[in-house]
Amino acid sequence: MKLDIQLGERTGRLETRNGRFELQWSDGAHVAGEASVAEVEPGIYSVLLEGRSFEAKIVPATPAHPEDRTWMVDIGGNRFAIEAFDPRSRRGRHASGPGEGRQTISAPMPGKIVRVLVTAAEPVEAGQRLLVVEAMKMQNEVKAPRAGVVAQVNVAEGATVAAGDVLVVIE
Amino acid sequence: MPAKPLFGKVLVANRGEIACRVIRALRELSIPSVAVYSDVDRASLAVRMADEAVHIGPAPSKESYLRIDRLIDAARSRGADAIHPGYGFLSENAEFAQACEDAGIVFVGPSPDSIRRMGSKTAARKLAKAAGAPVVPGTEDPVTDLVEARRIANAIGYPVLLKAAAGGGGKGMRRVDSEAELADAVRDASSEAERAFHDGAVYIEKLVERSRHIEIQILGDRHGHLIHLGERECSIQRRHQKVIEESPSPLIAVHPELRHRMGEAAVQAARAVDYYNAGTVEFLVDEQARFYFLEMNTRLQVEHPITELVTGLDLVHWQLRIAAGERLSLRQEDISWRGSALECRIYAEDPDNRFFPSPGLISHLERPTGPGVRLDSGVYPGWTVPLDYDPLLAKLAVWGPDRHTAIQRMLRALDEYYVGGIKTNIPFFRQILTDECFHEGQLHTGFIDEFFARRPAASPPDPLVEAVAVLVAALHSGKEQPASAGVGAELSRWRTEGRGRLFR
User: Fold this and answer.
1) B498: helix, coil or strand?
2) At what angle do helices B403-416 and B426-433 cross, to 10 degrees?
3) Mind listing the pLDDT tens digit for each residue in B291-338?
4) How far is A46 from A38, CA to CA, in rounded Å?
């Protein structure tokens, strides 16, 4: 069985057969071995690998958006955002990275929209402020990751948003 | 036969971990408790723990936890004969203390008059000075115009600190390094103070570089007996907010006479306002170990557990006993300090994104336990941390026979602590607690800024740990998504085999 892996900015391929695994990173790094895995509690895995005992906790990275298949895995306080998908389906792949095509800007955390600073069809510069989100009395500016034209503004001032909600689309 | 309870019933006019802390003490003293809750706190841990609960309004605290009339009505409707204010919200509001008194309800705190007299920072400075406590050089009264501000700042020398007279929590505070910055800083500090406290008055203090924040816990009864319970060092701060506190202060190991001298000064300052209840006198300590009065907090502090751990006393029990009119049976010479205690404030915030608040659903929760660990928490798995309030989830405190053991124990407890679904500052504490300067006790209020500057770049993660994370994500995806049959089936077989080997 083969799976494509996206860990943060890195990509790789995982192959498993009869309890053995092989992980080939596209930057050349390679890890292989025999692991014993048990889900000891829902979302909590005990993994024995090369004689070492690991405990990994896994939750969806953006619970409000089940269509996003990114997982947040915590091992001893180290957090990894990981996506694993069948190479035969291109689903789950990010349609575009920064600097190309349409770009969606999502809420980095739950909060309230206190200011909307752009409107549809407006050209924006990279780093320009798009909106201000407030949570627990702290305000955070959401900025344009690149230059473009605002295609969509999905929220109005006063709206409550969940982490991962698409706020603005830039083309 | 147990003694008659101190009160018939006590209403807790607060939320979160401190409401739970007070409810626990009430239960230990056989006093029924009444929680209050806003719309978003209906399912809070405090409501679940309390014997009774009353709805007091919508989420914004102005319309719920800060509504004196609703709190008094709630106490009346449930027949509570006392109100514990916790910390924050109305705990240092003289009007609230007065309203309780007028309604014939005991306010578990000091008199309205003590609160009023210590409430203004400039008035408190004058009081402390008159009582013989040293104060940081600065203005006696709020500055009224820029000409005067310039004259004063020049006289005491830059850098100076602007502070809100009605202040707290770092609001309305500005560092000013030169005369050129003064005008803007006064305007900004004043408007921030106006917004936060409805009082734009600011005053000027000499800014003492690399100073420590050390505070003295005091306890006084309604019969004029006052003692101190030693110090807490709270120099590890971010944006003027404490994040790690400890007792004893590492400075006391070098200057043991300081505890007594600061304790005396604190008791004198408290006596000057006829103080009763638990209270805290905050001092700034400079690099030459000279201390200066900063302000007095006329309430229970967030970080009170570390004092409880090293003295063996329960401050909330004592607050209630004092409020009921009991005499404080402890003399100063009865107080002794044992071992070392540390506290980390666990916040729902993202250390990788400028500590921005991270409210939301707690999907998983594993709590640290074991020797020497105390967790004062206000959350549970399945609880949604509301976006409307301070993001403090819990306070993790540890005790050890010495500072080194306490630090190691805290690191161990942090390893056991896991909050899933939202981000917390737990990883940040690991970094601070393994820092060499922290271990050496070289603390000052600029510690975190300097730590960020000298912190080495994060080392690349262990490839084996990364591989484990990938495996778990792959297996979990397969399990959660049986629709993609081929992958799911093979993974599940793989998983079963893995499990089989594990349990063989």
Assistant:
1) helix
2) 150
3) 999 999 999 999 999 999 999 999 999 999 999 999 999 999 999 999
4) 5
CB contact under 8 A, A19 and B497: yes
Cα separation of B65 and B83, whole Å?
Answer: 13
Which residue is listed with tokens 């996206």? A6
Q: Which residues of chain A have pLDDT under 70?
A: 89-101, 137
Q: CB distance A109–B415 less than 8 Å?
A: no
Residue A92, pLDDT score: 45
Q: How far is B360 from chain A (nearest CA, A)?
A: 7
pLDDT digits (tens, 9 = 90+) for B348-370: 998 888 888 889 999 999 999 99
Q: Indicate which residues of B carry an active-site annotation.
A: 299
Q: Is A154 exposed, middle or buried (0-12, 13-18, 19+ CB in 10 A)?
A: middle
The β-bridge partners of B106 are B82
A chain contacts of residue B239, beta-carbon cutoff 8 Å: none
Nearest CA to CA, how far is A93 from chain B (Å)?
A: 15
Structure tokens at A58: 């896994």
Q: Which residue of A has its CA nearest to B483?
A: A86
With CA atoms as reference, the chain A residue closest to B420 would be A59
Dihedrals φ, ψ of B187, to 5°?
Answer: -65, -50
Contacts 24+ apart (CB under 8 A), A9-18: A12/B470, A13/A87, A14/A84, A14/B470, A14/B471, A14/B474, A16/B474, A16/B490, A16/B491, A16/B494, A18/B494, A18/B497
Residue of B nearest to A30 (CA): B463
Supply the pLDDT for residue B494.
54
> 3-state SS string over B315-357?
HHHHHHHHHCCCCCCCCHHHCCCCCEEEEEEEECEECCCCCEE
CB contact under 8 A, B356 and A75: no
A with B: how many residue pairs have Cβ under 8 Å apart? Answer: 182
CB spacing of B359 vs A31 below 8 angstroms: no
Q: In Å, how far is A38's CA from the nearest CA of chain B?
A: 5
Return the amino acid letter for B341. Answer: A
Q: Is the pTM of this model over 0.95?
A: no
Are A55 and A44 spatial neighbours (Cβ–Cβ below 8 Å)?
A: yes
Whether the complex's predicted ipTM is more than 0.90 is answered with no
- Helix, strand, coil: what percent of chain B each, to 5? 40, 25, 35
Residues B199-223 have a mean pLDDT of 94
Angle at the Cα of B102 from the Cα atoms of B96 and B106, rounded to 5 degrees = 70
Question: Which of A3, A5, A138 is closest, CB to CB, to B357?
Answer: A138
Residue range B111-164, pLDDT digits in tens: 999 999 998 888 899 999 999 899 998 887 888 888 888 999 999 999 999 988
Judge: A47–B364 Cβ closer than 8 Å, yes or no.
no
Question: CA B316, CA B308: separation in Å to the nearest integer?
Answer: 10
Check B468 against A49: CB less than 8 A apart: yes
